[in-house]
Amino acid sequence: MFHLAKHARADGPTGPTGTPPPPGDIDEALWRGAAAVLGANWTGTYTVPSRTLYPHQWSWDAGFISVGLAHVAPDRAWRDLRSLFEAQWPDGRVPHIVFDPDVTERDYFPGPTFWGGGGTTPYPGAPPTGADGVPARRSTGIVQPPVHALGAWLICQRAPGEAAVAELRWLYPRLVAQQEYLATARDVGGAGLSAIVHPWESGLDNSPAWDEALANVPVDLAVLHRYSRRDTLVVASDHRPTDEDYARYLAIALSYRDRGYRDADLAGRHPFLVECPGFNALRGAAELALARIAEVVGADPAAHLARAAGITRALVDRLFDPETGMFHVRDLRTGRRSPARCVNGLLPLVLPDLPEPQVSGLVAAITSPRFGVSARMPVPSYDRTATDFDPYRYWRGPVWFNINWLLWRGLRTHRQETLAGTLRTALLDLVRDSGYYEYFHPDSGAGIGSPAFSWTAALTLDLLAAPDDPG
């Protein structure tokens, strides 16, 4: 998410009404503050990441947001996921942004005209309505990490009942279709891992993990004259991607768009194809969540369990480096693994059947000077000891709440309870001291980006509630 807007739709509540009190003896001010952020960012249909910066619906944001809403407004949690999946494409992909038609093109770039090639349909070849007869909504043609099945399962865990089962019945075939798309159309390397076709698909937009692959994408700065950046008009340019990187991002998106977002023959024509350990670990976690959902809705969980096991094996075989004790991205154009030690290389910790040598390597990395989790500070997005570590520039150093929440879950999954408790303390102290920011300075803890960011607020609620079983 690099893109900014001046305003978002102002309808919907300005704060939570009837917010349930916090469970147990926990920080009530932090709880109510987080719930208030989610209330203010609710449009009446879904929750935006930020009223000022991100005025549309983002895919993986919706998954994280639903986890927090489950504690204070489960009906809104389900509505968020429904809203997103109502925009699912016929091939199963869930777009990374679903656009609000009431937000003008001049307030956000790249908006629906860019992604649609100037057309008025939601995407090339789109039907006028979706499978449910709902008018199709305009969207991007790329995806984001599939955290939605995990979100759906956790809503059901946090707020069980007949309504939750009914929602799972509606979502289950759509979640399966999402996973099927990623497992087939995106298995470019043929080894059981999904390839991402754009850095934005990873969620870690300008991470150093992509530097080597991006270096092979030609730079045409003229594209910035055709499509003007708006982010650097309102945010310091040294907090954002460089012009060269942004030109590459637009070129990659245009390459995919101008071929109708077709995935056939990606290996032969697309300029950016990378296997990301974080993306694929979350895809494996989604299969495990789907196995649990399948049992609730009367489906067979076996295929989901088998696919999750296959993803774990492929991650270990293709992306783990025994010398670093971490997972690294693989550029499918060159076959090389990036040497950069980035936080997406720690995310396979969320997989419960990850072998012990890999678990030990990741725990060692998390506690090393490179990432240095402590009671004072969570895990940064990049190796602190790297010469190009940048504490301000988006995914090249700052701390991100959603990634640390996933690592907290992974540590608990592998019975690293003491370290998980340390990380939880650091995260809650971060928002207690600085607020519910989009991301944070990795040394001072100062908030950076949006000051009322939905997934930070949502996951604060989940950390405060901290059920004995992480789900």
UniProtKB/TrEMBL annotation:
It comes from the Bacteria. This is Mannosylglycerate hydrolase MGH1-like glycoside hydrolase domain-containing protein. The keyword DNA-binding does not apply. Keywords: Glycosidase, Hydrolase. Belongs to the glycosyl hydrolase 63 family. Residues 1-25 are annotated as: Disordered. The keyword rRNA-binding does not apply. It comes from Plantactinospora sonchi. Residues 54-456 form the Mannosylglycerate hydrolase MGH1-like glycoside hydrolase domain. InterPro entries: 6-hairpin_glycosidase_sf (IPR008928), 6hp_glycosidase-like_sf (IPR012341), Glycoside_hydrolase_63 (IPR004888), MGH1-like_GH (IPR054491). SUPFAM superfamilies: Six-hairpin glycosidases.
